[in-house]
Amino acid sequence: MEPEITFIGENLDRLVSLEMRPQGKDQGGIRRLYDAARAKHGEPITTLAARLLAEKVKAGDVVFIATGAGIPDHLPFGETDGPLGAAALALGVSLGLGAVPILVTEAAYVPVQEATCLAVGLGIRTPEVAEKVARTCAVLPFPADDSAPAVAEELMARYAPAALISTEKLGPNEKGVTHSSTGRPAAADRARVEHLFDIAAGKGILTIGIGDNGNEIGCGTIREAVWAYKEWGKVCQCPCGGGLATRVATDVILMAGTSNWGAYGIEAALAAVLGRPEIIHSEADERRMLEECVRLGGADGSTGTHVHAVDGTPADVQVGMINLMRTIVTNGLKPPRKRAF
Ligand SMILES: [Zn+2]
Question: Which residue of 30, 111, 153, 154 is most buried, as measured by CB atoms within 10 A?
Fold first, then answer.
């Protein structure tokens, strides 16, 4: 890759892997998991993901984007981490590659995801209409029950996606048990999208995972690091005995301080790879997405409260991330300057 793109990717990677959420004794954990993923990939991970998307996804191709993380009573419509990143990536592949984003999430979270997509200026249509109308997407409910494998087969056959992306979406360990970040069994109504990723892996279709803990889809790629560095990674708080580390691996795994930041980092890296910084969503869009996500019931995953925050960091931090990323990309792409003074 061109040195300026690698330089941009290096800085985007640093930014998205900053740790500033309230995480107590887990401080430093994301850095260790990021480093494990980076050692595996051998280059900045945001630009690796963007380069592969640009290579594999052609105009008119479908890209599946999975998200959704909630807990009944506390996060009944999911978190603010997840839907915004999914919407930003959907916008990125739509504007940048002419792809058709199809988002999959829990049935109860579909309205939240749709409102968040609309807030970033991405229209909501059926998949069939989204294939014909630019700057639109579809949001589909994905089953949480035993129909998931058959539905996964049907969706993969019908839409033949060129790539699958997962952000802030829990995946099961090798015992088939999915865990929360505290090593307890995840909610039973979790959409079992790992079946989509299993099929994609078997067919050699590009898969990208984004996580901020180690139990998310994609973290199977760095499972040994999750076992080594994460509390409850190897030994969980439930009788399964498998730990919270998921078995589900992806071609690319990006560990971020907050999953949304990882998704924005790939969106920004795609803009860099394409030489089109204007496709990065605006600060106003970011604020509007968070407002709409919360208005439809999304909650801060750190506190379980319906405040304008993501993983315990305020709205201004999310907006600032976009501002920094755009600056990294825009200035990184500028030709060398000769100072006249
Ligand atoms: Zn367990």
Answer: 30
Instruction: Round to whole Å and give the CA distance between 223 and 243.
Output: 10
Task: Measure 171 CA to ligand 1 centroid, in angstroms.
Answer: 12
Which residues contact residue 314 at a Cβ distance below 8 angstroms, ignoring those fewer than 6 apart?
Answer: 308
- Compute the distance from residue 143 Cα to the ligand 1 centre, in Å: 22
Cα 166 to middle of ligand 1, angstroms: 22
Tell me the pLDDT tens digit for each residue of 130-164.
Answer: 999 999 999 999 999 999 999 999 999 999 999 99
List, for residues 272-316, the tens digit of each pLDDT value: 999 999 999 999 999 999 999 999 999 999 999 999 999 999 999
CA of 311 to the centre of ligand 1 (A): 23
Distance 80 CA to ligand 1 centre (A): 25
Residue 213 structure tokens: 């803990």
Helices and strands: H and E segment counts in the chain? 12, 9
State in Å: Cα 215 to ligand 1 middle. 11
- How far does the centroid of ligand 1 lie from the alpha carbon of residue 283, in Å? 40
Whether the predicted pLDDT of 269 surpasses 80: yes
**C-alpha 262 – ligand 1 centre gap (Å):** 27
> Cβ atoms within 10 A of the Cβ of 340, count?
4
Distance 176 CA to ligand 1 centre (A): 9
Write down the H helix ranges in 42-163: 45-56, 83-97, 110-119, 127-130, 148-159
Of 63, 222, 225, which is closest to residue 155 (Cα–Cα)? 63
Map out the domains of the chain with their CATH numbers: 3-333 (3.90.1640.20)
Q: How far is the C-alpha of 171 from the C-alpha of 73, rounded, in Å?
A: 21
Distance 201 CA to ligand 1 centre (A): 25
Q: pLDDT tens digit string along 87-130?
A: 999 999 999 999 999 999 999 999 999 999 999 999 999 999 99
CA of 146 to the centre of ligand 1 (A): 20
